[in-house]
Amino acid sequence: MKLNIDSSWKTELNDEFEKPYFQELLEFVSNEYAENICYPEIESIFQAFNKATFDKVKVVIIGQDPYHGEGQANGLSFSVNNGIANPPSLRNIFIELGSDLGRPYNKENGNLEKWANQGILLLNAVLTVRGGEAGSHQNKGWEKFTDAVIKKLSEEKENIVFLLWGGYAKKKGRKIDTAKHLVLTSGHPSPLSANRGYWFGNNHFSKTNKYLQNKDKLPINW
């Protein structure tokens, strides 16, 4: 499988790409895409990195798996392709966003490419999935790779906002240097968590922009 990832990330992660586990991972993914329907499209597996290049990253949102329904996943965590109905977690993200910023927020288009283009790394812990089989590509090496990505960002950059939503994302963020970066945590935006009061009212979007502005960075146009 061709490693279709931006050159800035190739430079930063070159040592990781050479490790045996990653070579085995690429072989596994190549075979899966050859034999099964998998998501996202193979050319979009590293879309999060191609939109938010290493030098541009100022916010990281950590998801878990790509969506496994037909036409949904586009390589950006929580995001869906144009014309696809917003999944429940994404709807709750938009509801909180509208409430946080003090304006009604109607979002028909759930493609978060606009966010990624502003330096938000929409990073799933696992970058691929077999169609209709949630979690089918877990424990194959992706988690180790995305841990290395988070570690690299934490060590090499400063003043990134990490948004960790839910227990899984919080575990992924354990090694972030909180002396150098802002880490905001809350419940997951899924209906189960949100309806129990663990999501709504976290104000992560306004808190992110306030921090970025305090660090002389452009705020996000959410």
Structural class: alpha/beta
- Largest sheet composition: 4 strands, parallel
State the order of secondary-structure elements, H for helix, E for strand: HHHEHEHHEEHEHEHH
Count of helical regions: 10
Rg for CA atoms: 17 Å
Our estimate of the beta-strand percent is 5-15%
How are strands sequenced across the largest beta sheet?
A: 3-2-5-6
Question: Can you lay out the helices and strands and say which pair or pack?
Answer:
Layout (H helix, E strand, L loop, with lengths): L6 H6 L1 H4 L2 H16 L2 E2 L7 H5 L7 E5 L24 H13 L12 H4 L3 E5 L4 E2 L11 H15 L4 E5 L1 H6 L9 E5 L4 H4 L9 H11 L8
Parallel strand pairs: 2-3, 2-5, 5-6
Antiparallel strand pairs: 1-4
Would you summarize the structure shown here?
This protein has 222 residues and is an alpha/beta fold. The chain contains ten helices and six strands; from the N terminus they run αααβαβααββαβαβαα.
What does this structure look like?
The protein has 222 residues and is of the alpha/beta class. The chain has 10 helices and 6 strands. It has helices spanning 7-12, 14-17, 20-35, 47-51, 88-100, 113-116, 142-156, 167-172, 191-194, 204-214; strands spanning 38-39, 59-63, 120-124, 129-130, 161-165, 182-186. It has a 4-stranded parallel sheet with strand order 3-2-5-6. A two-stranded antiparallel ribbon has the order 1-4. The longest helix is centred in the first third of the chain and has 16 residues, at 20-35.
Task: Give a quick set of tags describing it.
two-stranded antiparallel sheet, alpha/beta, 222 residues
